[in-house]
Amino acid sequence: MEAQRITIALIDYTAGFEATPERVRLVDLVDFSKDVATFLRGEDKEVDTKTLEVAVRQGSLALETAPLMSAPKLFSDLRTLLSGELLDNLDTKRREVMERWQKMARQSKKVAYRISAAFLDRPIEINAESDYHADDADQWVQVERYIRGEIQDLGGATKPNAHVKLPDGRTLSVTTE
Fold it and tell me: What band does 144 get if pLDDT is binned at 50, 70 and 90?
């Protein structure tokens, strides 16, 4: 594969104005550039971000890399992101960044991220409507559990609880609001 430029854009309206190369909050710029460096570098430090040159582009605020020659895992991860929203097969560091970006986009509908490159059919969009997640993400379900035992103690002025002696002799402390 020939050398490829990758553009990663932050679309952010949370400050009451669009983040652009001309005007962006410093904290947003710092956080975004750290995330981009982590994303490009990956777990194996495939891309040397200390020597990597970037250009700041419009769209809201976009960082475009100099042509990258030898980053097969990065290119593979980008293709994986394009084919679906499951993060399981992604590099660990890239996965962390994608999860953080997805969380930010969901919390504030005014934040989105876009990753584009010439070898990708279309840009990768991370926004409030996307659902990039790991298959092993915590799954919360509603459950009811019943226990049998003898109540030993009830009450508590500042921390209400009940001490229940179970049939096997162990004591269970149940806290409530």
Answer: confident
